[in-house]
Specification:
The chain is α/β, with parallel strands linked by helices. 38% of the residues lie in helices and 15% in strands.
Length: 308
């Protein structure tokens, strides 16, 4: 198998375990490339990619752009805040105008769930979902699971806890799908108000006790409190959230075993994680950032149109 079974990457759900393993194997090869003195390969020369971001992003946008340039693709960056979207132009019109410039692939972030799938049915280009509202963020889940496999040599059989603001997170759902496809046991943990009611239907554990969850897990993937998405108050204060669900060195020292700490970024230091945890030997946060470029290179390469 040298190609993915899907034309677009819109969600983790349609991917098979074989697809994910192919992405991981290809990511390993590209990780060796980006650690060489000459970090570019001509794998996608003459392929044009548009990064179309309708929401602010730093890490994901830069990671995709770097991945594209490492593959020698031609890159167009589109920001909604400085475009005709502000004048009322529709998503489809925006995309078609971009494609008229002979763009082959679109990497899109959008605030509305399902926007990437909608676009994929309307345009003649390969679409990669870089995050659609609170729905999914497939490349983040792939790089998270790749990082776990790199550290443990496997994902199957591991116990992975996803902790924090589950209800507003696109990372949580993609991670749940990806981890379960690879055979991990998954638990979500956080205040009851930040855990969606449907979550148990995904055949995962739910806990509201952070200390018991840290004792249970091998890996803790800690999510950011997304205050910008919270139109109502979901807990009394950030101080109280940190007291009951924040992870600090004292909390980790109590559990009597070493677990791996992950975070998709950006971190609210002192709220989800204290600095002595985020910067500790437990943390693989910077490895996640490095692996993000390799995984996105793999996804772009495996989905790219055949070179003529």
């Amino acid at each position: 198998m040298t190609k993915l079974s899907v034309k677009h990457l819109l969600s983790i759900k349609p991917l098979t375990p074989a697809d994910i393993e192919l992405i991981f194997k290809t990511s390993e090869n590209f990780k060796s490339v980006i650690n060489r003195p000459i970090k570019k390969v001509p794998s996608m020369r003459d392929v044009t990619i548009a990064n179309v971001f309708f929401e602010n992003s730093t890490r994901t946008r830069i990671s995709f752009e770097l991945a594209e340039k490492r593959l020698s693709a031609d890159v167009i960056n589109f920001s909604a805040s400085s475009s005709s979207v502000t004048k009322g132009e529709t998503l489809v019109d925006t995309a078609n105008n971009i494609i008229s410039m002979k763009v082959d692939m679109i990497v899109m972030r959008h605030p509305n769930p399902g926007a990437a799938e909608f676009l994929s049915k309307k345009v003649n280009a390969i679409v990669i979902n870089a995050g659609d509202g609170t729905h999914e963020h497939p490349t983040q889940a792939l790089l998270d699971c790749f990082t776990i496999q790199e550290k443990f040599g496997k994902v199957k059989g591991l116990k992975v806890a996803i902790i924090g603001d589950i209800i507003h997170s696109r990372v949580a759902l993609s991670n749940i799908f990806c981890l379960k496809k690879l055979g991990a046991s998954v638990r979500v943990c956080g205040p009851p108000t930040l855990i969606p009611k449907f979550i148990e239907k995904l055949d995962i554990d739910v806990s509201y006790n952070i200390d018991e969850t840290l004792n249970w897990c091998d890996v803790a993937n800690v999510l950011r409190i997304q205050a910008e998405r919270q139109e109502i108050r979901y807990f009394p204060s950030l101080r109280e959230y940190s007291m009951y669900y924040g992870i600090n060195k004292q909390r980790l020292d109590k559990i009597g075993k070493k677990i791996m700490i992950m975070h998709p970024g950006p971190i609210n230091r002192g709220i989800e994680l204290t600095s002595d945890v985020a910067d500790s030997e437990h943390s693989v946060i910077l490895e996640q950032v490095e692996n993000g470029v390799a995984v996105r290179m793999a996804v772009l390469y495996l989905l790219s149109p055949p070179m003529v």
